[in-house]
Design a protein that fits this description.
The complex is a heterodimer of chains A (about 400) and B (about 475). Chain A is of the alpha/beta class. Chain A contains eleven helices and 13 strands. Chain A has a six-stranded mixed sheet with strand order 10-9-8-11-12-13, sandwiched between helices. In chain A, strands 2-5 form a two-stranded antiparallel ribbon. A two-stranded antiparallel sheet of chain A has the order 6-7. Chain A is flat and about 105 Å long. In chain B, about 50% of the residues lie in helices and about 15% in strands. Classes of the chains: A alpha/beta (about 400), B alpha+beta (about 475). Chains A and B meet through β1, α2, β3 and β4 of A and α1, β1, α2, α3 and α6 of B.
Chain lengths: ~400, ~475
């Protein structure tokens, strides 16, 4: 018999033998596709709204399981016991992973179909296919958004770390040839040392990139009729809007305006946690928004996105004023949206402003109705496609 | 970092081989490769093959293995051996010397088994590595071909993987050619010889339909489709052949898992005890050995079951008890002769059926469980009354018996090129979700409507799959 062969471990082989890399990449792509496929369900999960971007979410995945013909789960199996097993004894929980009792992997055909991703990745995936056209680039209160240092040319002085050795050596050689053999220094010394003029340093320049700025104005009705459910729906919508704007612009500021009959600018925390009271005067919120835009976010410098959530229970006398203010807002905003939140079982039969706002008639205005949390993602998409259409029309 | 060198391994290997020879193991030449844990995970994901065609499912399997490993849910195997000539095995770099010696001894057990068991007779081990490499090259060629590309290849591979185990189980039995099948059909159509033909009315000869496809129910789904589909192109058919060949290579291993692991454990135990290990190494060996062959309460550890069975067979032939002599007579062979014979002629199902005795089952406390609500509840234990039932359930849950048998009955059903398939129902229903998805794959490959006849909750049911999706037809 031939002698046994032992192949020793080789570090270099191990380092370049990541054979599964391409297949892993392909698998991850499929996971992403699968997630995109049921994004509406994920959005409807309460837990992701308003979380930090690093939060890790468990996402159920359909479509990347490998199917075969298998027997149903109710078929009996056989296991080894400790020596005192009795009929009727419970040996494991059937819930969860669907595995039989005992150590995992002793029953075939069970597949993982949940994966962990960060919220940031999820947001990326969500907006990946919205493919909006470049929005109107406004002349900015130019904030240098990026200061990448870019390599541009060479110079004779610089920090040691930026010394370009190759060029330096070339330039010494060039000088050596140019001297045609006359050697500097003492006779008999054949060395040809570097001269300060030989040194070449890489030149780095700061590359300023100017980014569009955007501001999101979140206007919410906090009157007595806005209950927790309505506020939750409003919040979900604001969250998506913020995340979206964030993926498109480098500098995004958010302004929260709460109004009942009067409007105030509030902090994020207050905005979502504040108790509700009083009647509703929508115009007050719009006027406040206009005022803030006037003061701080001039429309020529900022991309302005405004969104207003309310249950539509406005003080009837206010309607005319509100309509005028809405028109004015449309004039300054890239996109102005109004979301009427009417949960099906909220018992709110108040008026609707949707009819009223039909009259606004501006290309960048969009009114929508949200009835339950499954509506959020579809309405959000429609909301943005409106901007797409508007941009295309221009 | 390791406390051993290749020379150490070579030195121990020589002694182990000497022992293995003494015990009568006959092995292929052996090759070992020392690798780190990432390479090991890589080998595991690709069925241990150094070259294998790419597919995302291997990436998925790698990620899964790695996650389990990183979180400490499962360790890595000490070794991985593949059926090839020369035999190949991987040793983990980080393992201790004792583990390496144990592993080498274990690998020779597998090696002997692969070489001698009848299931592996047709696997052509001398070609294994080359064939896997060639198949990989073919698939890569299709992926890189400008008119095919990854998407198209993946689509076929996805479907083929879903059906790869739908093939003939008895790989050691030769498949009949079409001519032989035809002869058999003609034979079967002949009226049987009737000794009383003078007083009986002569049976009318009914000519068999020789144009029927298939002549006999066909289990090799992929091969059948590759042969009879008018829609698939040559490269698509080639992909089906590739997936089929690979499944065929692995089926013997699935079907001898318990025997094989038991055999290797039996021999590493013997060899290690015969090596006169220094005490320190010997103690470490015992710890590892017990870990490997311990029972997994609630589960079924093939190492455990196999190890116990081989020992028991040997004992029954070398030192039978009074009761056994009474029942079966004095054994004619020695224990060693018997186990070497069994390792050649059996596979898991026959092995367990023949040698798993009621006593042994009671000793291992084998029980049958079933799902009741949200829990698994023990339905029977191996007592006098029920051990046969428990054993039957066990036999159904090993190797290829966990794969439903699907047969093609007619490739031109109703003259519409509808593929008529039938699930051979053995009391176990198919799971609906996977049935639906897999039927779609079958439809994708066949290109025309596909019917599957099965039994669901006691009622005969036929599922139909066409472009519109899967429907349940009545009755």
């Amino acid at each position: 018999m031939d002698p046994t062969v032992f192949r020793p471990y080789s570090e270099s082989d191990a380092l370049r033998s990541d054979r599964s890399a391409a297949d892993r990449l392909r698998h991850r792509r499929k996971v992403r596709e699968a997630i995109r496929g049921n994004i509406a369900d994920i959005i409807a999960e309460e837990s992701i709204i308003g979380q930090s971007r690093d939060k890790i979410i468990k996402v159920p995945i359909r479509g990347i399981r490998e199917y075969r013909f298998v027997f149903g789960d109710n078929e009996p199996g056989v296991g080894t016991g400790n020596g005192d097993t009795e009929p009727g004894q419970v040996v494991g929980e059937a819930g969860g992973d669907g595995n039989g009792p005992g150590p995992p992997g002793n029953r075939p055909g069970i597949d993982y179909y949940e994966t962990d991703i960060t919220l940031e990745e999820l947001v990326d995936i969500m907006f990946e296919d919205l493919e909006l056209p470049d929005m109107e680039r406004k002349k900015l209160r130019e904030v240098p958004a990026d200061t990448v240092r870019k390599h541009k040319g060479y110079r004779r002085v610089g920090a040691r770390a930026h010394l370009d050795k190759r060029r330096t050596a070339t330039s010494r050689l060039r000088r050596k040839i140019a001297t045609r053999g006359t050697v500097p220094g003492a006779p008999g010394d054949s060395r040809f040392p570097f001269h300060r003029d030989d040194l070449k340093y890489r030149r780095l320049v700061a590359d300023l990139r100017f980014q569009s700025n955007a501001v999101v104005l979140c206007i919410m009705d906090t009157s007595g009729s806005m209950d927790t459910m309505k506020k939750y729906l409003a919040r979900s919508f604001f969250f998506l809007l913020y995340q979206f704007v964030h993926t498109r612009y480098h500098n995004v500021e958010v302004v929260f305006i709460a109004h009942d009959t009067r409007a105030r600018e509030v902090s994020e925390e207050e905005f979502f946690s504040k108790g509700e009271s009083g009647g509703t005067m929508i115009s007050s919120g719009y006027h406040k928004a206009l005022e803030i835009v006037q003061d701080r976010y001039h429309p020529t410098l900022w991309n302005i996105y405004a969104f207003h959530c309310s249950d539509g229970d406005n003080w009837p006398h206010d309607n005319g004023v509100a309509l005028a203010a809405a028109r004015e807002l449309c004039g300054v905003c890239n996109l102005f949206g109004y979301g009427e939140i009417k949960p099906l079982n909220s018992g709110s039969y108040g008026d609707s402003l949707l009819e009223l706002f039909d009259e606004v008639d501006a290309k960048n205005f969009h009114a929508l109705m949200i009835e339950n949390k499954e509506d959020i993602w579809p309405s959000f998409r429609r909301f943005l496609s409106r901007e797409k259409a508007a941009a295309a029309a221009e | 970092m390791s406390r051993w060198s290749i020379q150490d391994l070579e030195c121990w290997d020589a002694r182990i081989r000497e022992k293995a020879g003494e015990f009568g193991l006959s092995c292929f030449p052996q090759e070992f490769e020392v690798c780190n844990h990432e390479q090991m995970l890589g080998y595991m994901a690709y069925h241990g093959m150094p070259a294998h065609y790419p597919h995302w499912s291997f990436g998925k399997s790698y990620e899964k293995l790695k996650t389990l490993y990183d979180y400490g849910v499962s360790g890595l195997p000490y070794e991985m051996a593949i059926n090839a000539d020369p035999a190949r095995a991987y040793l983990m770099r980080g393992n201790s010397l004792c583990l390496q010696i144990l592993t080498i001894a274990h690998v020779y057990g597998h090696n002997d088994f692969f070489r001698n068991n009848f299931m592996f007779r047709d696997t052509r081990p001398e070609l294994t590595l080359g064939q896997f490499k060639l198949r990989a090259d073919r698939v890569r060629g299709y992926v890189e071909h400008p008119s095919i590309g990854l998407q198209a290849v993946e689509e076929i591979l996805d479907a083929a993987h879903a059906l790869s185990l739908q093939c003939r189980r008895h790989t050691a039995i030769r498949k009949l050619t079409r001519e032989e099948q035809r002869a058999r059909v003609l034979d079967a159509a002949e009226p049987p010889h009737d000794p009383f033909e003078r007083i009986h009315r002569p049976v009318e000869y009914r000519a068999p339909d020789l144009d029927h496809v298939p002549l006999e129910p066909e289990e090799d789904l992929l091969l059948f489709i590759a042969e009879y589909s008018p829609y698939l192109t040559d490269w698509q058919k080639d992909l089906l052949h590739i997936v089929h060949e690979e499944a065929r290579y692995f089926i013997p291993q699935m079907d001898t898992k318990i025997m094989n692991e038991g055999w290797a454990s039996y021999w590493h135990h013997k060899i290690m005890n015969g090596l006169d290990l220094p005490e320190e190494l010997h103690l470490e060996f015992l710890v590892h050995h017990n870990q490997v062959i311990r029972a997994h309460p609630g589960g079924l550890n093939p190492y455990h079951v196999g190890f116990r069975l081989w020992h028991d067979i040997r004992r029954r032939y070398d030192e039978p008890t009074e009761a056994e002599i009474e029942a079966h007579g004095t054994p004619e062979k020695s224990g060693t002769e018997k186990i070497f014979e069994v390792r050649e002629t059996d596979r898991d199902v026959s092995f367990l059926r023949r040698f798993l005795t009621a006593d042994l089952m009671r000793d291992m406390d084998l029980f049958e469980y079933a799902k009741k609500g949200d829990q698994f509840v023990v339905s029977h234990v191996s007592d006098e009354e029920h051990w046969r039932g428990v054993k039957e359930t066990l036999l159904r849950n090993i190797g290829m018996n966990t794969v439903p048998v699907i047969r093609i009955l007619d490739a031109d059903h109703d003259h519409h090129r509808t593929l008529y398939t039938q699930h051979e129902h053995d009391g176990r229903d198919l799971q609906y979700e996977s049935l639906e998805k897999t039927l779609r794959y079958l439809h994708r490959l066949w290109g025309r409507r596909v019917l599957l006849e099965t039994v669901m909750q006691g009622k005969s049911t036929t599922f139909s799959c066409d472009e519109g999706g899967v429907d349940r037809l009545a009755g």
